[in-house]
Amino acid sequence: MFDGSLNISIPIKNLFGNLIMFLPMGIYLPYYSKKINKIGRFTFSMIILLFVIEVTQLVTRRGSFDIDDFILNMVGALLGFGIWKTRKVQRLLK
After folding, report:
1. CA angle centred on 88, ends 84 and 49, rounded to 5°
2. Boundaries of domain holding 54
3. Which terminal residue of the chain, N or C, has fewer Cβ atoms less than 10 Å from its own Cβ?
4. Total domains in the fold of the chain
5. Contacting residues for 77 by C-beta, under 8 A, at least 6 apart
6. 26 touches 82 (CB < 8 A)
7. Residue 48 within any structural domain of the chain
8. pLDDT tens for each residue of 26-71
9. Is residue 29 part of a domain?
10. Of 18, 17, 49, 20, nearest in space to 33 by CA
């Protein structure tokens, strides 16, 4: 029987899962491609990549084009890029 209550763990898993899933891209993409070391190029590259992923999900019917996923994945990637740009990480690479 449906009692109207919400299982809060599902939205929490969705939120953090989407954020964490693309966080490594913010580190690996600029590491492996020196051309994508600036925020503008990185953001443009991630928008294209995420758009392709979302459209592929829509076309293959393995998911849906979900703007929430797009935004959360982008925020996760930007967090990773922010971590990449910290002085500690840059010092470790030298």
Report:
1. 5
2. 34-94
3. N
4. 1
5. 22, 23, 25, 26, 29, 42, 46, 50
6. yes
7. yes
8. 999 998 998 988 999 999 999 999 999 999 998 998 888 888 889 9
9. no
10. 49
Tell me the residue type at 33: S
User: Which tokens in the block code for residue 75?
Assistant: 């925020």
Residues making up the chain, counted from first to last:
94
| The dihedral formed by the CA atoms of 17, 19, 24 and 25, expressed in degrees to the nearest 10 | 120
Residues 6+ apart with CB under 8 A from 22: 46, 50, 73, 74, 76, 77, 80
- The Cα angle at residue 15 between residues 32 and 79, in degrees rounded to 5: 35
Average pLDDT, the chain: 88
| Assigned domain for 17 exists | no
52 neighbors 65 (Cβ within 8 angstroms): no
Total-model pTM: 0.82
21 is a domain residue: no
* Predicted local confidence at residue 52, as pLDDT: 94
